[in-house]
């Protein structure tokens, strides 16, 4: 059984033409999506130049740090977070701090993982020391402070409040027993 459209074309011919257009559009959209993903990936992977100044820091917890995140000194962005990988002991995280040019950072400086506001993005803050000797390319910070995790903080506050309440209850019970 053959169906005809108003202009005299067979339905099967029309369906074939429609499928060719759909396949062509699908291939073009897939190629476009692949191109966009490639550009995004290349931007997210930080390739530092040979002139970059790279320092490192080792943390027990580096929760929430993102590649290309900010490295700040006195609240101003001075560099970016580079690669993150397990340290040699396998239990800590080693983080590269990448700067576009050499920085005068005293060797006794420390770094900490900070958060913008309560739920903001995490970044690394450099806290300068007072030594006259400056860090060299490839050096590592000796003093680090891990990321503060809000859930852990709330758990500690909750445990403290429960302990305080149980001590108050015990004190009240002792006072009531002394009165009797």
List keywords for this structure.
2 domains; seven-stranded mixed sheet; flat; alpha/beta; 2 helices
Could you describe the 3D structure shown?
There is one protein chain. By secondary structure, this protein is α/β, with parallel strands linked by helices. The protein has 2 domains: 1-44; 53-153, no CATH class. The chain has 2 helices and 7 strands; from the N terminus they run H-E-E-E-E-E-E-E-H. The protein has a 7-stranded mixed sheet, with no helix packed on it. A hairpin with a 6-residue loop joins strand 5 (110-115) and strand 6 (122-127). The longest helix has 34 residues, at 11-44. The radius of gyration is 30 Å and the shape is flat. The mean pLDDT is 82.
Report the principal-axis shape: flat
One letter per element, helices H and strands E, the order comes to HEEEEEEEH
Q: Determine the structural class based on helices, strands and strand pairing.
A: alpha/beta
Rg over C-alpha atoms, rounded to the nearest angstrom = 30 Å
Note the total helix count.
2
Low-confidence stretches: none
Number of strand segments: 7
Side-by-side strand order of the widest sheet: 1-4-3-2-6-5-7
Distance between the termini: 103 Å
Q: Percentage of helical residues? A: 25-40%
Mean pLDDT: 82
What is the oligomer described by this structure?
A: single chain
User: How many domains make up the coordinates?
Assistant: 2
Main sheet summary:
7 strands, mixed
Note the beta-strand portion: 15-25%
């Amino acid at each position: 059984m053959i169906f005809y459209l108003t202009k005299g074309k067979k339905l099967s011919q029309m369906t074939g033409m429609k499928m060719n257009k759909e396949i062509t559009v699908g291939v073009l959209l897939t190629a476009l999506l692949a191109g966009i993903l490639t550009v995004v990936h290349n931007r997210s992977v930080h390739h530092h130049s040979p002139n970059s100044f790279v320092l490192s820091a080792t943390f027990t917890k580096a929760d929430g740090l993102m590649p290309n995140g900010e490295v700040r000194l006195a609240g101003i962005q001075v560099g970016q977070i580079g690669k993150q990988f397990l340290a040699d002991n396998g239990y800590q995280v080693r983080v590269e701090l990448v700067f576009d040019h050499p920085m005068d950072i005293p060797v006794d400086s420390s770094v900490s993982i900070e958060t913008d506001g309560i739920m903001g993005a995490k970044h690394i803050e450099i806290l300068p020391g007072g030594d006259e000797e400056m860090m060299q390319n490839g050096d590592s910070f000796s003093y680090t402070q891990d990321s503060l995790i809000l859930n852990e903080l709330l758990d500690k506050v909750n445990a403290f409040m429960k302990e305080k309440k149980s001590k108050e209850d015990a004190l009240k019970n002792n006072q009531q027993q002394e009165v009797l």
